[in-house]
TrEMBL record:
Keyword rRNA processing among UniProt keywords: no
SUPFAM superfamilies named in the record: PLP-dependent transferases
Protein name (database record): Pyridoxal phosphate-dependent aminotransferase
GO molecular function: transaminase activity
Required co-factors: pyridoxal 5'-phosphate
Length: 387
């Protein structure tokens, strides 16, 4: 196998392996986080109308004006953030490209990037591609809170950027205002940029509300906020995301984005604009439905002898498999399809050290339809899951 050295140390995404295992074994796939049901049908009609209506050539690199203004209105309506849609908003090919373009546009080789651990797996790859060095700050089970002292200890003279994610995948924790204030203080004391992945901004539970760190005093100027229609509107396959923030940070992201994809799916952009403007209640309803499904899966996991962490947001819950006598989440997840016909994901995939803090943790997705969750629960109940 020939490949460039930049791919060394970047394992293939765990989701490909686990989803293939699910197909091969006929298992219920609670591994990869995508919903079974699509977003609003009227938004799909908008996409069809755009396809038929001649919106099929290159869109402007920063995105079509109607989507950029809809994103600006969204940030205003939810968070009171005022944006110039021509200079402070850019459309990306999903949040994934937003992460890539932000890191390539803002991180110099040798710069240190502070990142919450466990982390979404593309962070590892993209910090590496940018030539940056990861400085993980642990969110420790079972509460997954951020310890401000550990954050401070991770920052050094070569740190240029904090890469934040809240609501947080894979732990399901939502950073509190106090935790965000600690991040803001560290960023300001050390003159750091914050890039914040807020794709689960609307998917919070039990009355909790997501606070964008860009709304904290003094933070707008140094924060690049990333989000996407994928999670908020159940269109994960559309890959329409966006970046918002001060013009210089958005320009840095666009500086890299123009050489990655140049521009993103033209006919999907007016449809996402319609979703933001005309279906503003969809994400909150989705969150309430996800909260019910969270509880359904949690009851099933509890009945199977596991004690799930109660996530505050996102698609995911986590369990500690030492409850069942296992030590290694990867071994558990490889045995699970045969034992129970269910696929979950070992959390070790989201840590720097597979034998470290996350070794004994497993992530389960509850963004699936209720009958799918019920079937998984039935299978888990009927199986012998002990080590
Ligand atoms: C799903 C996800 C993404 C990717 O978003 P896309 O819009 O599908 O590219 C980014 N970050 C986190 C934390 C995610 O869970």
């Amino acid at each position: 196998m020939r490949h460039a050295r930049r791919l060394d140390g970047i394992p293939p995404t765990i989701f490909a392996e686990m989803s293939a295992l699910a197909v091969r074994t006929g298992s219920v796939n609670l591994g990869q986080g995508f919903p079974d049901s699509d977003g609003p049908p009227e938004v799909i009609e908008e996409a069809i109308a755009a396809l038929r209506g001649g919106r099929n050539q290159y869109a402007p690199g920063i995105g079509v004006p109607e989507l950029r203004t809809a994103i600006a209105r969204h940030q205003q309506r939810h968070y009171g953030i005022e944006l110039d849609p021509d200079r402070q908003v850019a459309v990306t090919t999903g949040c994934t490209e937003g992460i890539a373009a932000a890191l390539l546009g803002l991180v110099d080789p040798g710069d240190e990037v502070v990142v919450l651990e466990p982390y979404y797996d593309s962070y590892l790859a993209m910090i590496g591609f940018a030539g940056g060095v990861r400085r993980p700050v642990p969110l420790r089970a079972p509460s997954f809170r951020l310890d401000p002292d550990e954050l401070r200890a991770a920052v050094g003279p070569r740190t240029s950027l904090i890469l934040l994610n809240s609501p947080h995948n894979p732990t399901g924790s939502v950073l509190t205002r106090e935790e965000l204030e600690a991040v803001a203080a560290v960023a300001q004391e050390n003159d750091l940029i914050v890039v914040t992945d807020e794709v689960y901004e609307h998917l919070t539970f039990d009355g909790r509300r997501h606070v964008p760190i860009a709304t904290l005093p003094g933070m707008f100027e140094r924060t690049l906020t990333l989000s996407s229609a994928g999670k908020s509107y159940s269109f994960t396959g559309w890959k329409v995301g966006w970046a918002t923030g001060p013009a210089d940070l958005v320009a840095a992201l666009v500086g890299a984005k123009q050489w990655l994809t140049f521009t993103s799916g033209a006919p999907l952009q007016p449809a996402v604009a319609a979703a933001l403007d005309e279906c503003p209640d969809f994400p909150a309803k989705l969150a309430r439905s996800l909260e019910e499904r969270r509880d359904r899966l949690a009851a099933g996991l509890t009945a199977a002898g596991l004690s799930p962490y109660t996530p505050e947001g996102t698609y995911f819950t986590t369990t500690d498999i030492t409850d069942l006598g296992w030590a290694n989440g990867r071994e558990f997840c490889l045995a699970l399809p045969e034992r129970a016909g269910v696929v979950a994901v070992p959390m070790a995939a989201f840590y720097d050290h597979p034998d470290g803090d996350g070794r004994h943790l497993v992530r389960w997705a509850f963004c699936k339809d209720e009958p799918v969750i019920d079937e998984a629960v039935r299978r888990l109940a009927a199986a012998d899951l002990s080590a």
